[in-house]
Amino acid sequence: SHPAMFLALQLLIALPLLAILPSTESCTAMSTREKASEVFFQGVTQEFADTFSADEIPALLELLTDPTFEPKDNVVALLGYVDVGQEADTVVARLMKLPQLLSPAKSAEDRALLLMPGTLGRLAGRGNKAALLALERLVQEGRGAEQPVARDLARQSSAALAELRT
Fold first, then answer.
1. Beta strands in the chain (DSSP E)
2. pLDDT number for residue 26
3. I need a surface site. Which of 24, 58, 76, 83 has the fewest CB within 10 A?
4. CB distance 147 to 102 below 8 Å
């Protein structure tokens, strides 16, 4: 009878603890956040991007709009290398919101904006039509624009489109 009572007591102690443990989803998001925070002097590589799974795409997209997360430029670069699969249109839509969300006055955010056309170019190169249309839109919007960031995006997008044609 003592072993059964001991087991029951252990369960009474353990069950409430299970309720406070993070879910598998938040553990994945935390590890994604930690990985995406790595510092790269040479830029994000394909080998590093290969450590991310398709399941981490939603967490990466959340990091783009998380005001507490830096460096967003890593996330933008990663999205160009990671196989985004069915999430490609969602990735493009989220990237296209970045000019309204990020400040070119912050260096990491400015780098994220400047990497955006290259990421869209890699997605377009894998056949994503939304990415191709996004690049064309950035070129059109940047022509004659007053904001330097819009002109920079147009210039980078034009280069990405030229690379796709070669």
1. none
2. 41
3. 24
4. no
